[in-house]
Amino acid sequence: MDIGTTLTRFLLEEQRKFPGSTGDFTGLLADIAIAGKMICRGMSKAGLIDILGATGSSNVQGEEVQKLDVVANDTMIRALDHTGHLIGMASEEMEDIFQIPDEFPKGKYVLMYDPLDGSSNIDVNISVGTIFSILRRKSTGNKATLEDFLQPGAEQVCAGYVLYGTSTMMVYTTGTGVHGFTLDPGVGEFLLSHEDIRIPDRGDLYSINEGNARYWHKGTTDYINHLKSGAGGTSFKGRYIGSLVADFHRNLLKGGIFLYPGDTKSPDGKLRLLYEANPLAFLAEQAGGAASTGEKRILDLMPTKLHQRTPLIIGSKDNVAEAERFWAGA
Ligand code: AHG
Ligand code: MN
Ligand code: MN
Prior knowledge:
Layout: H1 7-16, H2 24-44, E1 54-58, E2 64-66, H3 67-80, E3 86-91, E4 98-99, E5 109-117, E6 128-136, H4 146-149, E7 158-164, E8 168-173, E9 178-184, E10 189-194, E11 205-207, H5 218-229, E12 237-238, H6 244-254, E13 256-260, H7 273-286, E14 290-292, E15 312-315, H8 317-329
Parallel strand pairs: 3-5, 11-12, 11-13
Antiparallel strand pairs: 1-2, 3-4, 5-6, 6-7, 7-8, 8-9, 9-10, 13-15, 14-15
Helix pairs in contact: 1-2, 2-3, 5-8
The site of one manganese (II) ion has 4 residues, from β5.
């Protein structure tokens, strides 16, 4: 496609490949792009208006809520509640399902999202992002139900993120490859910049919070020691931002592995299955990579609750397979 292809044009051309498509889905992704632009604008003004820092309250995960988490969560709702594509939403920052209000038309999809991933990095001007996942609803009534959200990640019809980095990017998949768009601030549009992203089969980056090493299981310790030893002829580089979406994006483009394993302190790790692991696992697989708990494929997990956590090992397929061998041998 030509340089200068807008996200809107790309979505329309993709839609035309599916005769009979209602355009519902194209509209939904366009809404998410608008929400991303609005959050981006809020982020870039964050240093000027007093919205940096914590609200002083905790979210349902018991973590400190940053003001911009709340702003981003509200922005997603405002941009998506009235456009007729959704029946409900669930977010890391909301305890329960958000139902599309009665006055608005209802759609056939549910949206799950992490409004601001990596938000503890905001105060130090480091990249953060919005992660999203879309499922077709299962229920048939006029309200979304829990079963609409508690589906295995393999059922996702779309997933992606908007990364607020040195430039703002939207990266998504609908199950036919992974495409990346960069926001041209002058035009105010996302332009196709990374068509059909493929993650290298093997990379030399590893990303893990080594501050947790004293809690690690043997498989994690042995694997990380193996990487550091240079065995296999690769000199690995440690890279850990502490913003999953930014760590993932870098490894997606350059190749490598990100790990947030379960350990003796947090047996299920830290990251959330529905808002973080599933969408990134869908992207990783669509780019030719892999995502695992160390034992099982992430996309096969059957969620039992909205805010469920899962260990996550994600990235280049050979690296993830190697990590799984260490888990199996531990
Ligand atoms: P969030 O800001 O949405 O709560 O997510 C933070 C997550 C993730 O972005 C990152 O990879 C991880 O927390 C970092 O955790 P540690 O500080 O424990 O390494
Ligand atoms: Mn997050
Ligand atoms: Mn978050």
